[in-house]
């Protein structure tokens, strides 16, 4: 099937190749989705900021845009002929009407590919919900870019300047008051989090779609280990209970507020080196082992098992020898000779 499009000032000449009632100015044939479109390139050059405007303007002037052996131009790869036909209306009237059976995301992707503005002045669609969703995503991206520069980035810089490699930011409203008891502060690590007091940012993060957009923006900016969600944050102490034995139990009032966790360090590859050396000592010099909660965990951290590919290279040991086991309850013999590395 061949569709013929002319300069909008001259009007549409015909719908089939057999219609010869067309003016004699230059035309080019575009192939999109195995469909040929005969077009006056002047409709493209009238919109020089679009991809087709560049292709048939400066692109042809500098010999960047070239036809195939039949003199036809294969363009808009991956875009259906139905969508492309609707997009050609943009070059005639400035309006794209979403065809029946075509989703707004598909039309949006085509507009982005062809560098055509996707906004309420350009797109007309019966499915207003889908259209508003796309426009909201655009607005949320622009809005979060502003919040990121004005509110979030200064706290990230403060964390980095203090030697941190990540940050945990909680977003409170302008009216929230944090009043912790100095003698009985919260015991869940909130003292390491940073606070943004902003009702606008709080309302922005209430929508899960906005949190998805914000996460996409942070990923695009190169950040790692990003988590966005809603969590409880302690604001003030309600009461203190005494447990048996005299240990106090502090009860705080918690409010559900948005949070952001992220890191700016690259994930380095783990070392493949395995050290089998055992040193008989009563002290714990391994910091990770010292932080373990149970002696059994300390043993595992101090003497990690070899990786699978390293095990394949070890010599066979006779039965009854002293070896490490995957069973954490079997403790190694500290007097056993150290195997060679």
How would you describe this structure to a colleague?
By secondary structure, the protein is an alpha/beta fold. It folds into 3 domains: 2-126, Potassium Channel Kv1.1, Chain A, CATH 3.30.710; 139-263, no CATH class; 274-341, no CATH class. Helices cover 31% and strands 19% of the residues. The protein has 11 helices and 10 strands. The protein has helices at residues 42-45, 51-55, 58-61, 81-93, 104-113, 128-161, 199-205, 208-220, 287-290, 295-302, 308-311, and strands at residues 2-5, 28-32, 35-39, 73-74, 96-97, 123-124, 166-172, 194-197, 224-242, 248-263. The protein has a 4-stranded mixed beta sheet with strand order 1-3-2-4, covered by helices on one side. The protein is elongated. Residues 26-131 form the BTB domain.
Features of this protein?
341 residues; alpha/beta; Potassium Channel Kv1.1, Chain A; 11 helices
Largest sheet: 4 strands, mixed
Strand order of the largest sheet: 1-3-2-4
Distance between the termini: 73 Å
Unreliable spans are: 9-24, 283-315, 317-336
Rg, alpha carbons = 33 Å
Remind me, CATH topology of the largest domain? Potassium Channel Kv1.1, Chain A
Question: Would you identify the CATH architecture of the largest domain?
Answer: 2-Layer Sandwich
List the SSEs and their pairings.
Blueprint: E1 2-5, E2 28-32, E3 35-39, H1 42-45, H2 51-55, H3 58-61, E4 73-74, H4 81-93, E5 96-97, H5 104-113, E6 123-124, H6 128-161, E7 166-172, E8 194-197, H7 199-205, H8 208-220, E9 224-242, E10 248-263, H9 287-290, H10 295-302, H11 308-311
Parallel strand pairs: 1-3, 2-4, 5-6, 7-8
Antiparallel strand pairs: 2-3, 7-10, 9-10
Helix pairs in contact: 6-8
